[in-house]
Amino acid sequence: MDLIAFAPSVDLPRAVDFYGSVLRLQHVETTPFAAVFRVGAVMLRVTKVEALTPQPFTILGWSVPDIRATIADFASRGVEFTRYDGMPQDSLGVWTTPGGDQIAWFRDPDGNTLSLTQFV
């Protein structure tokens, strides 16, 4: 079986620009119902919805080998990283878990929370 991930969007052209141009995911196609991307072996379907209330938790995340380089790359294309009150994050917005993993969060144009993780 292969995993298919889903994310909601009220504006597919805007989602195609963000996921394709900003995050540089491979855009496969856009239909009236979804924008489809390939992320390695995983299919990501950004599904058209009429209304959206973003959830307060991460809906999609990526494991990256160098979180600081990825943050710099994404920030150069306009991605803003999220800071959370009471959470000790460094100047780039990275939180280090007790086990040493590093995580940073950002939002897509619909307000969905996405993350980057560099595992130890």
From TrEMBL:
InterPro entries: Glyas_Bleomycin-R_OHBP_Dase, Glyas_Fos-R_dOase_dom, VOC_core. SUPFAM superfamilies: Glyoxalase/Bleomycin resistance protein/Dihydroxybiphenyl dioxygenase (SSF54593). Residues 1-119 form the VOC domain. This is VOC family protein. It comes from Kutzneria chonburiensis.
